[in-house]
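Zinc metalloprotease
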Amino acid sequence: MPDLLRTILSAALVLGVLVFVHELGHYLAARWRGVHVEVFSIGFGKPLLRWRDRVGTEWRVCALPIGGYVKPHGFEGPDEASLEIRAAWLPGRTFHDKPVLSRAIVIAAGPVFNFLLAILLFAAVFAISGRPADQADIAALPPVVGDVLPGGPAAKAGLVAGDRITSVDGAVIANFGNLQRLVAVSPGRTVELQVSRGDARRDLTATLGSVERGDERVGQLGIVAQPPPPRRVGPLEALVFATRYTWMVMQGWVSGLWQMLTGNVPMSQFGGTLRIAQMSGKFAADGATSLVSFMAVLSINLGMVNLLPIPVLDGGRLVFYAIEALRGRPVSRGVQEIGFRAGFAVIATVFLFATLNDLTQFGLFVWLRHVVG
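Predicted structure tokens:
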């Protein structure tokens, strides 16, 4: 029961913070561009708490904390609003009357705030616990094997953790960066390795693997460096590194999505809300630093998902606004309606698929087969 309670509370905290920050981006951008915000809701369903601030926005905390929304004043266009709604519009403060740039800023601000939150969370973790090693740090390490990937070229050649690679085909290896460069330019080649293992010297032969990186193939030895411990940094360096780290995670997200769509990564890895809740509980058990780091990564995921060019998501609306900016007039209401319906169907299908993946991972269907059998 304590584990279940921790999972529920940590998931509510993580999702609640991420949704609040996302919607706060929309809210603040709307206020900046002169759009009145009618409702700011965290969650859906029956409001548990509600109050109205001095500018007339109604704030809600609802029974289902998964998700939330901001309702800008006049979000509907004149062709879809009733006479009663149009009569209540505040001149100059409706969303639909604003220039396309202002509307795009309001919509884009949600994902942008998720990325900013990730940077701040990572910066806090790095300032307190030290920043992890980056590629430059790893390249400067001594060429000592930290781990050997099972079944890889290094494992087949007989390399073990702790080995120091002193030369490749007679070329002296000064650091891990030298080793990476020599291996990268030799895909598929058989190379001679000179290795120091304790006080002994060994000569090994390895046939390098080959992997795609961008438009080229690079060699792979199948070893991992032993990264140095986190390095203490000041607040400014932590913020700079957090920005770089956030960008790296964003690039990894795009690459991971592409790998999944092309079948290089099994779709079973695709998880949803239930898996997020489970992982929140696990990271919470590991401590505040782990939970904050997980929240930062999840914030990036939320921002990236919302930027997908699918109608009903922020990215889909931004596509419509880009077309409007190029054509000089909005996309027709009929086309938008078709897009929103198709987008809703896609999102519903993805949600269902992710939920089934989560339940499969949890072993529900194995348990049901056992019960029925």
